[in-house]
Amino acid sequence: MRVDSIRSYRIVLLSVTIIDTLAVIFAATLAWNLPGTIPFFPPVPFIPSAVTIFVIAEYIVLLAVLKFVGGYDLRDIGAGSAEYRAIITAQALAFGGWGVIAYLWDIPLSRTYFLVLLVVQTIFLLLGRFIFRRILHHFRDEGHFMRRALIAGSPTRTRAIAEALAGRTWLGLLPVASFLSADHLPTTDNVSKDPVFQDLARAVKESDVEVLVIADGFLKDSAEFSSISWALESLHVSLIVMPALSNIAQDRIHSRPVAGLPFMWVEQPRSAKALSWVKRLFDLVGAGLGTLLISPFLLIVAFLIKVHDGGPVIFSQTRIGVDGEPFKLLKFRSMVENAEELRAELVAEHAGEGLFKMAKDPRVTPIGRFIRRHSIDELPQLFNVLRGEMSLVGPRPALPEEVDTYSEKAYLRLRVRPGMTGLWQVSGRSDLDWDETVRLDLYYVDNWSMLRDIMICLRTIGIVVGGRGAY
User: Fold this and answer.
1) Which domain CATH number covers 206?
2) Are residues 151 and 136 in the same domain?
3) Distance between CA atoms of 188 and 227, rounded to whole angstroms?
4) Whether residues 153 and 131 fall in one domain
5) Measured in whole angstroms, how far is the alpha carbon of residue 428 from the centre of its chain?
6) Quick count: other Cβ atoms within 10 Å of Cβ 317?
7) CB–CB of 361/457 below 8 Å?
8) What's the rounded Cα separation, in Å, for the pair 378 and 373?
9) Percentage of residues of the chain with pLDDT beyond 70
10) Which of 9, 146, 348, 441 could form a disulfide with 395 if both were Cys (CB 3.0 to 4.6 A apart)?
11) Which PANTHER family match (predicted)?
């Protein structure tokens, strides 16, 4: 393994450990001082020696449990939800164990301190990992803390995987080489007699990579996979297998070994669940509270738009909702009053399938440019959500003329209510091309979950404040 890679791994692990340590210290301090200021939570009895011993012991046990449940697994640090699940699991196991021990041995530990520490420490640990993830992603965007990868497969698949990894640097995989396969590889029980497998092992070694990515179609049976594993055993290279499955969320896939075969159970698409009462209740509560909290701000924006040119404050436009039903979408007016008349000319110059977007649209007013950059113009859509025409999270609401150009695949976006935000919003907004927008929307439709909606809403706040990808 490369010396710089070993150093990078150590830096990442040391940084995560320090962040977890700080989270425990801050949580322990806050849990000591917070009770007494919260109703129904009395102050913690002043027994500093007992609390100090407990915090030190709890910290050591927590680190051990985190290691056991994968909280320090380099494959999960910085990407995916497994890292956060490990934090929650470790907290539950550690505090559950301490609770049982305190009860059986009658340890004089303040219940108030114990409960507050559990909640506060979980929040601080998750927040610390989240902040570290943002920092790690920044460094990975600049080419640091990346794992060199070789991709084995057909020219089409290796190119597709390389492009996918290059556009998602937060995964920490840097494609540096490829190993192109023939239609089928020879099968043999003795790896030493198979030059193809030996060539692959030699390519891995000469490329000095840490990860081998095997694309679907590269192997024709499990015997070939075993042969490759044996050939790579001494090289200490991580192995990633890309199955012929795409755009399926991890929580829809369940693996279960049967007679040595890795059976993969894939749940049906969840578009029907995206219309459930749970999501509707989430929309009503979120839109209702949001409208109530920002109503003074809405009045200020409306006043500024009116003062600028004396035109109407609200712009309504026909959009296509769930199952192709049209509705009137509400927005703060950000363009000149005859914007729709000018649109036909601009569309003719920039014709194409799907959505129409211009980076420097001449119809946008000065104040409109600001409110569009920070998505303030879309806040009146909270009323569309309350009326049941839209959702807080969903595919981008489409114009009728855009729907007329839809392919059969793109039309599947209309299975759910359009949203004020969505995967398209947190993945690039107007910077995305049409194909990528459709792919993200269909991924959302097929893989809907309440947790994913909440995460998209949280990510939207940062995207909107920064004004990235909007015009």
Assistant:
1) 3.40.50.2300
2) no
3) 8
4) no
5) 13
6) 14
7) no
8) 11
9) 82
10) 441
11) COLANIC BIOSYNTHESIS UDP-GLUCOSE LIPID CARRIER TRANSFERASE, SLL5057 PROTEIN
Question: Which residue has 């699940």 as its token pair?
Answer: 85
Whole-number Å distance between alpha carbons of 181 and 156: 11
User: 228 and 157, same structural domain?
Assistant: yes
Shared domain for 392 and 438, answered yes or no, is yes
User: Following CA atoms 38, 40, 46, 52 in sequence, which dihedral angle do they give, to the nearest 10 degrees?
Assistant: -70
Query: For residue 363, what pLDDT is reported?
Result: 79
Looking at the domain assignment, is residue 258 inside a domain? Answer: no
C-alpha–C-alpha distance, residues 219 and 224, integer Å:
6
Token pair in block for residue 412: 């599947």
Report how far residue 34's alpha carbon sits from residue 56's, in angstroms, rounded to the nearest whole number: 20
The pair of three-digit structure tokens given for residue 193, joined into one six-digit string: 């007699």
The continuous run of DSSP H or E covering 438 comes out as helix 434-446
Give the whole-angstrom CA distance, residue 318 versus residue 321: 10
**Range of the structural domain that residue 201 is part of:** 147-244
The CA-atom distances, in angstroms, between 315 and each of 54, 294, 295, 302, 305 are 60, 19, 18, 11, 11
Question: Bigger pLDDT: 264 or 335?
Answer: 335
Burial class (CB in 10 A: 0-12, 13-18, 19+), 204: buried
Residue 254 lies in a domain: no
Give a yes or no: residue 255 inside a domain: no
DSSP per-residue letters across 33-83:
HSTTSSTT-PPPP--HHHHHHHHHHHHHHHHHHHHHHTTT-TTTTTSSSHH
Comparing 153 with 343, the larger pLDDT belongs to 153
| Last residue of one domain, picked from the residues 141, 173, 195 | 141
Q: Phi/psi of residue 416, each to 5°?
A: -125, 170
Shared domain for 428 and 354, answered yes or no, is: yes
Are residues 123 and 161 both part of a single domain? no
What gap in Å lies between CA 434 and CA 413, rounded to an integer? 13
Q: How far apart are CA 441 and CA 145, in angstroms?
A: 31
Q: 422 and 328 in one domain?
A: yes
How many structural domains is the chain composed of? 3
Q: What is the pTM of this model?
A: 0.67
Q: Where are the alpha helices (DSSP H) in 184-276?
A: 195-207, 222-232
Which of 141, 175, 204 is at the close of a domain? Answer: 141
CB 391 within 8 A of CB 418: yes
User: CB of 451 within 8 A of CB of 253?
Assistant: no
pLDDT tens per residue, range 58-74? 899 999 999 999 899 88
What pairing do the DSSP bridges indicate for beta strands 253-258 and 261-266? antiparallel
10 assigned to some structural domain: yes
Give Dmax over CA atoms of the chain in angstroms: 82
Tokens of 331: 């927005």
